[in-house]
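Figure 2 data, in text form.
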Amino acid sequence: MGWHGGWFVYMRGGDESERKAQVSWRLIRRVLGYARPYRRHIVWMLLTILVSTGLSLLTPLIFRDLIDHTLPEGDTGRLNMLALGLVLIPVANGAILVVQRLLNASIGEGVIYDLRVALYAHLQRMSLRFFTHTKTGELISRLNNDVIDAQRAISNTIVDIVTNVIQVVAILAVMFTLEWRLTLLGLLVMPGFIVGARRLGFRLRDIAREAMDHNAQMNAIMNETLNIGGVLLVKLFGRIDTEVDRFDSRAARVRDIGIRRAVVGSTFFVMIGLVATIGTALVYWVGGHLVLRGAFTIGTIVAFSSYLTQLYGVLQQLTNAPVAFATSMVSFERVFEVIDLPLDIKEKPGAIDLTDVRGELTFEQVTFEYSIDEEHLLGYVQRHGQTELVTTALSGSGGARQGSGSPQGNGELPHAPAGPSQARELALDNVSFSIQPGQLVALVGPSGAGKTTLTYLIPRLYDPNQGRILLDGHDLRDASLASLAAQVGMVTQETHLFHDTFRTNLLYARLDATQDQIEAACRAANIHDFITALPDGYDTIVGERGYRLSGGEKQRIAIARVILKDPRLLVLDEATSHLDSQSEALIQDALTHVMTTRTSIVIAHRLSTILAADLILVIDRGQIVERGTHTDLLAQGGLYAGLYETQFSRREGQPA
């Protein structure tokens, strides 16, 4: 059993399949589960609907009494009472509607709050693999658009349907009581009314969808060309006139479809009005003859026509109610799809808390592959009117969408052919090594060899497919995620900063840190003097993703953040090759402070770091092919010696 209407498209791996929106009782029961905490509000709201409907039925009866009795009989007292009633009824109805709106909003906003928090909390627990295969825009749509649409299903659609059903039953009951023959006559035009409403309604909806698509294409240009990166590109290539012309073309489409929508919308309401007018005219015509014969009074026909107008209005809203309900409930399906996604990185029941960590790290036969499990991924939903639909933002042409199954990220090139490149199926293959507390280990190897992948396994951004990783003898999968995160600090090659102040970005590492502790960490990272020289000091906004800062400044902020966190295990992607010599020197000095007394794993880009390392692990095609000190590895004359010859010695300005 279900309602049908509306459609959306699920896409996985670039394949499209279209299906009509369906509402199952299982889905309805789950939705009602979210409404259960608000059942008292729901009961009171139903009572207000009943009272409001009852009050709206009184006005035509008052008019009938005025016409048939009060005025002909000249009853002044009765006239005063009825006039007062005509004032009090809308006043009372208005007060009830305010209370009803309060109850309705409390239910709708409560449900949207519960859904949104549950959804956000679940997304935060998803693994890094999930986010590398899911568009950010799709997640925002689930959190924002779909949750709001789900709220509308409760606050508007369901409430409107219940209200309309109650009104139809009440109005028909009163109409049959007044005159059953005229009631049947008024219902004769209903088939034409319903057919006209549905046909024009579907046409209007198609035009509305087309308008949304044109708006999406126009918004895509704005999104691409009005952000700082897009503006910079447009100016550098002198494409201002080109982009203005392109925007003009798409804005013209929005204008034209808007005119069509207005005309068809007016036609829709005119035709619906004509059908209602025909029904009303029939009632007046037949009813007039009955009045002339003395079958019933003038007041009755006036009251009856008023009820008929109300009935047509309510039935018009109910005509598309199943479609509106099914389409609204689809939003719940989209939200529940995310909530039901299984967690890739799970915390075991009774997981241990890592305390007093010394920093001994061991990899035991670790193998890892960037495999793609559809069960853990999110289905892409085609939504009309959203920028995600625009496959090519500028040209506006079609194209194959990137499905969630497309390989992405470091090493995610499954079944790649073997050869001199680093392309391969396994990102890490049977990796084993051990690091003692306080040691500095340098990871060296060609680009794409698996160095970054190895570091991602330490804080459990991913779990190995085979083997295990131990910290002080504890399997990382046995530890609580919070305690592991507290013990591991990472400075990645790409530093992410929130669009907030320096202080807020630094406090992210340690929420209870004092100002003295913040400044001490920044001094150690050689960034304190730079921050204090700014007009607002630590309260200065860093800009979107730290765009107002240089690469070296962002790196030093990241280092200060790790120092403030004070982890026992430090993982560094020593990304200094793209910096100027002064920034590089400041960062190297800061790193020296950070690595003191901590177990450190560094993806090395500088010879000075390699020379200071207690152990060098040389990685090639996901395997450790050499290990030892700088001197030992040079003596072996293997891959490390070649890397030293071509990269490290020349970068440091030393003879090869």
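Caption note: The chain is about 60% helix and 10% strand.
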